[in-house]
Design goal:
Blueprint: H1 7-34, H2 39-47, H3 66-79, H4 81-101, H5 104-115, E1 120-124, E2 140-144, E3 147-158, E4 165-175, E5 181-189, E6 195-200, E7 211-222, E8 226-227, H6 233-269, E9 271-272, E10 275-276, H7 281-309, H8 315-339, H9 350-358, H10 368-381
Parallel strand pairs: 1-4
Antiparallel strand pairs: 2-3, 3-7, 4-5, 5-8, 6-7, 9-10
The chain binds flavin-adenine dinucleotide (FAD).
């Protein structure tokens, strides 16, 4: 058994750590406050090839592995979770779905610009009345001549509001000639007729991550924009979400690591009762528990990513990592804020930003309850 990262994995992690510390971390507070989208930093990330790590060089990627991508997501999220979110959606989910299920023509047209970071992808599953019960979606697609016509609303869609977002992968219901209906997946370009970008949501945190509604109002796309097997569109969407869960776990570990570092620094510098509060065992124990939980969650997401790289089943490991890491990070963020006392409640201290944003990770890409349902299903299969 080998717990060491390869030379390449260490190199990319260290490079991205330096980049994130130097370029992203100093801007994180301002981005959160203004809600501006970080186009200049995305451009730098694209130049480093970060959006294309696990894809072959022939499609503009780095030919790297999923472990490396997830180390990168952790490092970016340690500086600012919004950047982990961008890569999770565009690379782990959308890029992968195009790469695994797309035709050669679709890959050339839609995947390559995403892999190179010239364009950003979005994933459209959730609807106003269909969240955890994603299979109950009501968006429809109908073939009319050489075009699919889509109608429906997709809710809470990450990335699509970015100026450089090119497309959203939409799951929609299709009537199957008297045999009931099926769910298929479609590549919907943002400039398709009938595509309407809804308002930017007013969120409680993560303001620099674009979240918008998408309205498909008789939205017309070419017949060839059906992605993969029409009967398995839902399964395709769920398959890539398995990787998204590893990415959310890596994000949670990154944020938790940042919380622990801030809390440690604060505890060593803040004096009460004539000594640094770090000297009090009650504070030390909180920090020790944080370090143990972070280490465990990191090992969990790395194992899930490693299994994926080996082409092995990782449904249990991906859900377990997402569930544990996201719940762990909420506790770590709360304890880190607590160690800051009243200062932690003030907006200029990064822990308040981490604390507000971290809840999201227990909700997106399947809530904690959904993860427990998925984990229980894997137990029943054993
Ligand atoms: C900022 C943000 C970005 C997002 N980005 C995207 C995106 O890019 N693309 C996309 O498609 N979606 C996206 N989502 C949607 C997200 O994946 C959903 O919000 C999530 O899946 C939960 O669905 P819901 O909000 O409808 O909650 P609901 O499904 O209504 O759940 C409400 C509560 O009920 C619980 N619950 C539901 N069913 C059960 C059950 N059977 N047993 C026990 N408890 C249950 C849930 O766990 C939850 O606590 C985003 C959401 C947010 C907030």
């Amino acid at each position: 058994m080998d717990f060491d990262l390869s030379k390449e994995q260490k190199m990319i992690r260290d490079e991205v750590r330096k980049f994130a510390r130097k370029e992203i971390a100093p801007k994180a507070e301002e981005l959160e406050r203004t809600g501006e989208y970080p186009y200049d930093l995305m451009e730098k990330m694209a130049k480093l090839g970060l959006m294309g790590i696990p894809f072959p060089e022939e499609y503009g990627g780095m030919g790297g592995d999923w472990v490396s991508l997830h180390l990168v997501i952790e490092e970016l999220s340690r500086a600012d979770a919004n950047f982990g979110a961008i890569i999770d959606v565009t690379t782990s989910v959308v890029g992968q779905e195009l790469y695994v299920f797309g035709t050669e023509e679709q890959k050339r047209k839609y995947l390559i610009p995403i892999v190179k970071g010239e364009k950003i992808g979005a994933f459209g599953l959730t609807e106003p009345d269909s969240g955890s019960d994603a299979g109950s979606l009501t968006t429809t697609a109908e073939l009319q001549g050489d075009e699919w016509v889509l109608n429906g609303t997709k809710q809470f869609i990450t990335n699509i509001g970015l100026d450089n977002a090119s497309l959203v992968l939409v799951a929609a219901r299709v009537q199957n000639e008297g045999k009931g209906d099926i769910i298929s997946t479609f590549i919907v370009p943002k400039d398709a007729p009938g595509f309407e970008l809804g308002e930017k949501y007013r969120k409680m945190a993560m303001h620099a991550s674009a979240t918008h509604e998408v309205i498909l109002n008789s939205c017309r796309i070419p017949k060839d924009n059906l992605l993969g097997d029409p009967n398995r569109g839902f399964a395709q969407h769920l398959a890539v979400l398995e990787t998204g869960r590893i990415s959310i776990a890596a994000m949670a570990v990154g944020v938790a690591q940042a919380c622990m570092e801030e809390a440690l620094r604060w505890a060593q510098g803040r004096a009460q009762f004539g000594q640094p509060i770090f000297n009090f065992q009650a504070v030390q124990f909180k920090l020790a528990d944080m370090a143990v939980a972070i280490e465990l969650a990191r090992n969990m997401y790395l194992k899930a990513a490693w299994l994926k790289d080996q082409g092995r089943q990782h449904a249990f490991e991906a859900s377990a990592a997402k569930l544990f890491a996201s719940e762990m990070a909420e506790k770590v963020a709360s304890d880190a804020l607590h160690i800051h006392g009243g200062y932690g409640f003030m907006e200029e201290y990064p822990v308040s930003r981490y604390f507000k944003g971290i809840k999201l990770l227990q909700i997106v890409e399947g809530t904690s309850e959904v993860q427990r349902m998925l984990i229980a299903r894997t137990l029943a299969r054993q």
